[in-house]
Design goal:
- By secondary structure, the protein is mainly α.
- The chain contains 8 helices and no strands.
- Helix 1 packs across helix 8 and helix 4 runs parallel beside helix 8.
């Protein structure tokens, strides 16, 4: 796959895929997944999970890559702690860069407004009004670092 991690993830994002799909699918080959599998696995995590504006979808995509890299294969607490610690470290870096992990806060949306499940049309104004491209690029670069250090 050509381009930097950020370029690959942003290529998916600019094709209309959600933020989680864009980050996760950019690394499908490294995780022995087809692009189709990666897009399907991550589809529900976009726009703060199901467009409910919870945890940032780009960060969800990064979290899935972290699970691939350090996820537990038993139910042992010590094994779970490894991936949980990694995700917390990544969350701290994301919050330092963007101020929050919450999609609704990143987009400065009213907490009392419930949006529909229908995504917005992707226009220049859409991209200009939100930090999503920066979030996708940031998470893709972090994911690339994790995979490089496997």
């Amino acid at each position: 796959m050509n381009g930097t991690a950020a370029e690959r993830a942003l290529a998916f994002f600019h094709q209309g895929f959600n933020c989680a799909q864009s980050v996760f699918a950019a690394f499908a080959p490294e995780m022995a997944l087809s692009t189709e599998q990666a897009l399907r696995f991550s589809a529900g995590f976009g726009a703060g999970v199901g467009r409910m504006r919870g945890m940032c979808g780009a960060f969800s995509g990064l979290t899935m890559v972290a699970g691939f890299c350090k996820g537990n294969l038993t139910g042992e607490p010590q094994e779970k702690e490894v991936v949980f610690s990694l995700v917390r470290e990544l969350a701290d870096a994301f919050k330092e860069e963007f101020g929050t992990l919450t999609c609704r806060e990143l987009l400065h949306l009213d907490a009392n407004v419930q949006e529909s499940a229908r995504p917005n049309e992707r226009t220049k104004a859409y991209y200009d009004a939100r930090p999503c491209e920066r979030c996708v690029a940031f998470c893709a670069e972090k994911a690339a670092e994790l995979l490089k250090n496997l």
